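Sequence, please.
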C-alpha cells in the first residue's frame, strides 16, 4: 500500500463540515433560501468520510512510526490523532442525535440554532486538526517521500 489515501480522503470531511456550518448559518439567516435539512445531510457525509479518513490516518501513522521522528513531531502526531478522533466520533454522534431529534420535533426551530452551535464547535475542531496535519506535512515532512 504505497498510495497515501489519507491526504486524499481528509479533504471530504473538512469540506462537508464547513459546508454544513455555512449552509446552516444561511438557513438561520433566511429560512426561505435553503432547505432546513441540507446542513444535517452534509454533516452525515462528513461523518461518513471522516471514518475512512481516520482509518487511513492510522495506516499513515503506522508508516510514520517506522521512520522514527523526534518527540516534538510525535506530540503533534498524537494531538492530530486525538483531534481527528474527536471530529470523527463527534460528527458521527452529533449526526445521529440530530436526525433523531429533528424527526421527533420537526416544528421546533430551536434545534436549528443548537445544531448551528454544535457545527461551529465541530468546524473549529476540524480546522485545528487540518492545521496540525498541515504542520506535520509542510514543516516536518511527515508522509512525504
Amino acid at each position: 500500500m504505497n498510495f497515501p489515501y489519507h491526504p486524499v480522503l481528509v479533504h471530504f470531511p473538512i469540506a462537508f463540515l464547513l459546508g454544513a456550518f455555512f449552509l446552516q448559518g444561511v438557513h438561520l439567516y433566511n429560512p426561505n433560501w435553503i432547505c432546513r435539512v441540507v446542513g444535517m445531510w452534509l454533516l452525515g457525509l462528513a461523518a461518513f468520510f471522516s471514518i475512512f479518513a481516520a482509518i487511513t490516518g492510522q495506516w499513515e501513522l503506522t508508516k510514520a512510526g517506522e521512520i522514527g521522528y523526534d518527540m516534538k513531531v510525535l506530540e503533534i502526531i498524537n494531538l492530530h490523532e486525538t483531534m481527528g478522533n474527536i471530529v470523527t466520533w463527534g460528527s458521527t454522534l452529533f449526526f445521529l442525535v440530530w436526525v433523531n431529534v429533528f424527526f421527533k420535533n420537526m416544528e421546533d426551530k430551536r434545534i436549528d440554532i443548537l445544531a448551528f452551535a454544535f457545527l461551529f464547535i465541530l468546524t473549529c475542531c476540524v480546522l485545528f486538526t487540518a492545521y496540525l496535519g498541515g504542520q506535520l506535512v509542510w514543516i516536518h515532512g511527515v508522509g512525504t517521500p
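The mean pLDDT is 90.
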